[in-house]
């Protein structure tokens, strides 16, 4: 469906562009923390419902026997200006929610994969997901207080990352640090499009 | 029309109890909206001065959606505002769309951004935060 408009009636009511950015990573890697640190509003939560087979009918009979599970999604908002907003979505962690990732990733600008060096393997599925779909991503290495410090090069080797995928050390609790990660993602997207954003 | 958001909390049940009402009861069991394309960040804009009295079949939740969409609101914020699952909100929005009560503005797919200035604006906006 194309956008439906009331061009005659809108009379100057401008609709902003909203861009999606995904925040992925293993359980406990700091996804919700990063969304909270960056969002201008208290992060909101919404739910998506997983329904069993039989989807697509308008018949109420049978609904009562469908098993439903709800998956919570955290999201936050950053207003860039009157015409432009960023929406950050924390991805649900478990593998059985891949279909939700597909919805989140559709049309997304890109993704931040948070890596926890204590459990590096937990972010492999996220990296695979974005690599396979050609969705630009950066890796934010979340520096937990009790984690050993590794060099970014060592982490890059362990993750077997493409050389052009940016990696940033970050503290998911810190807004400035989170901003740096988002900026490196948008710069990465611009570079991939062949029109790099000039550095200040 | 109500201006406050519905309060779904029950004093004698906590979150672990799960939803008290089956999620799709509100939609009469319909799990698919009448129209596709309600992206999570699609902006929903209510028709100015809608005559809701002409639609007695609409639920209070439909009416709240029209109210919230008066200032143009993305689907995901509508769902959070009504404390309803996104899937349910999409069905309700489909009802409103088919009655001409709302318009939906799809976001551009990031791969087809209208121009690169958007990325420049995002970077400078983030730097200025």
TrEMBL record, chain A:
Specify whether Cytoplasm is a keyword of the entry. no
Is Protein biosynthesis one of the keywords? no
One of the record's GO molecular function terms: ATP binding
Instruction: Name a Pfam family for this protein.
Output: ATP_bind_1
Q: Which InterPro entries match?
A: Gliding_Motility_GTPase, Gpn, P-loop_NTPase
Query: Which keywords, in A-to-Z order, does the entry hold?
Result: ATP-binding, GTP-binding, Hydrolase, Nucleotide-binding
* Highest taxon in the source lineage: Bacteria
> In which family does this protein belong, per the annotation?
Belongs to the GPN-loop GTPase family.
> What is this protein's record name?
ATP-binding protein
UniProtKB/TrEMBL annotation, chain B:
Pfam families per the UniProt record, alphabetical: DUF742 (PF05331)
Task: Name the domain of life.
Answer: Bacteria
Q: Which PANTHER family match?
A: DUF742 DOMAIN-CONTAINING PROTEIN
What is the name of the protein in this document?
Answer: DUF742 domain-containing protein
Organism in which the protein naturally occurs: Micromonospora lutea
Q: What taxonomic classification does the UniProt entry list for its organism? A: Bacteria, Bacillati, Actinomycetota, Actinomycetes, Micromonosporales
């Amino acid at each position: 469906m194309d956008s439906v408009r009331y061009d005659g009636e809108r009379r100057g009511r401008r609709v902003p562009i909203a861009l999606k950015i995904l925040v992925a990573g293993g359980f406990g890697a700091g996804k919700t923390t990063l969304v909270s640190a960056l969002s201008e509003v208290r992060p909101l939560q919404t739910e998506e419902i997983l329904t069993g087979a039989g989807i697509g009918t308008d018949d109420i009979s049978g609904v009562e026997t469908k098993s439903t599970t709800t998956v919570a999604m955290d999201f936050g908002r950053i207003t860039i200006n009157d015409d432009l907003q960023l929406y950050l979505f924390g991805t649900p962690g478990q593998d059985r929610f891949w279909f939700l990732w597909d919805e989140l990733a559709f049309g997304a600008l890109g993704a931040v994969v948070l890596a926890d060096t204590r459990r590096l393997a937990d972010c492999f599925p996220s990296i695979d997901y974005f690599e396979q779909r050609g969705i630009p991503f950066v890796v934010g290495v979340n520096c937990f207080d009790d984690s050993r410090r590794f060099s970014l090069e060592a982490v890059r080797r362990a993750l077997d990352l493409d050389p052009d995928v940016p990696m940033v050390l970050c503290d998911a609790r810190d807004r400035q640090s989170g901003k740096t990660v988002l900026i490196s993602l948008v710069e990465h997207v611009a570079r991939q499009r062949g029109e790099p954003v000039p550095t200040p | 029309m109500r201006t406050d958001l519905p309060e779904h909390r029950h004093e004698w049940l906590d979150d672990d109890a799960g939803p008290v009402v089956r999620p799709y009861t509100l939609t009469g069991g319909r799990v698919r909206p009448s129209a596709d394309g309600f992206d999570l960040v699609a902006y929903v804009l209510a028709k100015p001065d809608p005559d809701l009295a002409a639609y007695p079949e609409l639920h209070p939740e439909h009416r709240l959606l029209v109210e919230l969409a008066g200032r143009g609101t993305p689907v995901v914020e509508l769902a959070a505002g009504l404390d309803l699952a996104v899937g349910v909100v999409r069905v309700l929005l489909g009802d409103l769309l088919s009655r001409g009560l709302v318009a939906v503005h799809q976001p551009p797919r990031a791969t087809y951004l209208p121009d690169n200035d958007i990325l420049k604006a995002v970077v400078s906006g983030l730097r200025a935060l």
